[in-house]
Description:
The structure holds two protein chains of two kinds. By secondary structure, chain A is mostly helical.
Amino acid sequence: MATVTDAPKASFRLSMLIYDTRYRSITIQIVVLLLFMAGAAWLVDNTVRNLAALGKDFSFGFLWNRAGYDINQMLVQYTNDSTHGRAMLIGLLNTLLVAFMSCVAATVLGVIIGVLRLSPNWIVGRLTTVYVEMFRNIPVLLWILVAYAIFTEVLPAPNAFRGENPTASMILFDSVALTNRYTAIPDPLFYRSLGNIDVGLFLISLDLLAIIAVITGSVLVNRKLLAHATAVQNATGVRPVTWWKSILVLLVPLALLLIALGFHAERPVLRGFNFTGGLDVSNSLMALWLGLTLYTAAFIAEIVRAGIGAVSRGQTEAAFALGLRPNRTMSLVILPQALRVIVPPLISQYLNITKNSSLAIAVGYMDLRGTLGGITLNQTGRELECVLLMMLIYLAISLMISGAMNVYNNSVKLKER
Amino acid sequence: MKNTVFLGTLAAAGLAAGFVSAATLDDVKARGELNCGVNTGLVGFAAPDANGNWSGFDVAICKAVAAAVLGDASKVKYVPTTGQTRFTALASGEVDILSRNTTWTFSRDADLKFTFIGVNYYDGQGFMVNKALGVTSAKELDGATVCIQTGTTTELNLADFFKVNNMTYSPVTIETNAEGEQQFLAGACDAYTTDASGLAATRAAFANPEDYVILPEIISKEPLGPLVRHGDDQWADITRWAMNALIAAEEYGVTSANIEELSKGTENPEINRLLGAGEDNLGAMIGLEKDWGKKAIVGAGGNYGEIFAATIGESTPIGLARGLNAQWTQGGLLYTPPFR
Ligand SMILES: N[C@@H](CCC(=O)N[C@@H](CS)C(=O)NCC(=O)O)C(=O)O
């Protein structure tokens, strides 16, 4: 540094921009910035010009037009008279549904496999290794297609359940039908339903709200109960018996509510071409869920294994020396420390699941890509708008997931005191 | 300061930016090859054989245009497109013309900015079911699961049809005809719906076509025709009249058997203009050679009727009758404006 400041104050020459270390890095940065801006400007300008040459405008007005097409899986109401915007919402919800289901299942499966992989048992260790190597080294699209092909080719068509001597029959006391189109399961219904409230975008079932409220209440009361028991234990050294009280508090209010609402499950029955009355879980959803779960679980297993491996052996030994049993050592000493290593890469696996869920198109699952980026795009011809919107939505979902996971990560990370 | 730099680069970039060229004819000539968008494989309409040579009813249009413009019907690059990708392929300039069972509709014309150059097949949407279902009418399809190709007009018609008739259905969206075929045969849907011609072509490719019926209801109008981009009228004229030449040839009795003979000159001035055999040079008006019409007909494999009979007609496995697609003189709808 000293040599630079001591340099004679020569008058500024243009060549100094390149040869003088004081200016060079700034020069380079400005040039790169200019090139970048020129590139971006060229792209935008080219797009604008080409759109103009085609006589097309850039507008999102189509989102308020009638969609005109039907969707086979709707979490909230939708008919072909709804708007393209609403079709987009249906797709978005379907994306979130499959992403959520896959994240949960992949985490559970991944943790189990990851822990088992460390097992001293030779067979278990080898089997989990085979699982991990098999699932993470074959593209997820193939797993999805394989799952779908198995569902459609192996399971019977709905009309195989018909007639005097049907070739297929329902399982679980005639309440579930596995077909090559969907799995029909009983539909939970209420004789004395409280109805729905309309929150503008969709209806919320009051029954569901009531159930959630009662469960939350029960859990809170149960917590109080346990806290009280702990307080008594701390004071007297004897823990009062709580298990039957807990069961009572947790189950009775819910049971009473369900009876009051007239809860029952409607069985699916074969009527006409298809099963009606129950809930249809489409094979495309199942295949997508299975494919994403099995694939991502292999990665999560590796992350978990690495996380546990990162906790030094001395921690285990210290815990053993204190007399902790292996189970408690794992849950009280190892896992809390391992989580710090596990959570950050886990976030990116959740993001991967969400983005990979757009492979839904391969099995005809109507996710965001299928509605907004598929049928809407094609029927309206608004390629640019639809794709931009879709990118924006996926970006927003990803940022939200990583935001939420970062909050969690902060809560488990090492707190320096 | 930053802003002015930005605007400056913007302006500079603007000058250098590429345009979608308006002169498709020049592009095709310079390339020496016509890029023709076809479907991914629908026997009779457009399908490649074992050697990768495409043939079919829609392919004939590609050949006619290539022959008229380049003088060689084999100078075509066939670009397979799905219901979803076809319009993007055309709008982006990846193909010069799209000849792929595409229905001429108001919004595709006005909103998607395409020019339909005519109708080469008057069609309507139908349903196909397995005979074993015992269904004889589309009105009996209440509650059915229906396979439907996404990105098509048939998708919208289907929704309308079930609504009007107070019926429900569950759509299974598929990407290509091959996928639809597989799903339908696997029983993943009760009915397959698309253009009736497409149904016939699809069924012809089944192992046991006789096990399936096409229901009598035709629920929509599907005038299928080739299309080009808006904004290049010369190219639209060339393609439109190449197709009209095939229709006119049938009307005037020009066949692949007698075309050499007739192009030496005939008593009929209309035929002379069509084949470039007389004084009039219609080709010059659209930037082509004088005998462009003759080249188009020879290149396509004959007149409209000959092509129809060879690809999808009653003597082929697809077995479509001429019906609406007969000449106006035979009670059909084919009617080309005069070559004058
Ligand atoms: N005419 C309708 C439907 C056209 C269509 O996609 N037809 C299907 C079924 S006949 C097809 O050609 N498929 C061939 C393929 O998948 O490549 C439209 O223009 O939207």
